[in-house]
């Protein structure tokens, strides 16, 4: 009986470890996607600023500077992780 308990404990510890690894991989994947999206947005802005360097690219829907200073971006606000679904 003790041997079975030890085997079950080892199996549960392996499962816990595997679950934690999967969580880390998922978090890294989501973070990588977020960085890729941000990089794409910055590249797009650079291309547009090169084309229209005379006109400012701000719109009425852009975020205020204080929000940008604390790291809030349109992507953060519209992200699915803030939804109630």
TrEMBL record:
<dbReference type="InterPro" id="IPR051771">
    <property type="entry name" value="FAM167_domain"/>
</dbReference>
<dbReference type="Pfam" id="PF11652">
    <property type="entry name" value="FAM167"/>
</dbReference>
<dbReference type="InterPro" id="IPR024280">
    <property type="entry name" value="FAM167"/>
</dbReference>
<comment type="similarity">
    <text>Belongs to the FAM167 (SEC) family.</text>
</comment>
<protein>
    <recommendedName>
        <fullName>Family with sequence similarity 167 member A</fullName>
    </recommendedName>
</protein>
């Amino acid at each position: 009986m003790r041997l079975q308990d030890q085997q079950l404990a080892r199996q549960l510890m392996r499962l816990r470890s595997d679950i934690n690894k999967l969580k880390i991989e998922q978090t890294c994947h989501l973070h990588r996607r977020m960085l890729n999206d941000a990089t794409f947005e910055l590249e797009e802005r650079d291309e547009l600023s090169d084309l229209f360097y005379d006109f400012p690219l701000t719109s009425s829907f852009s975020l205020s500077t204080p929000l940008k200073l604390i790291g809030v971006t349109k992507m953060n606000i519209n992200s699915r992780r803030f939804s109630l679904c």
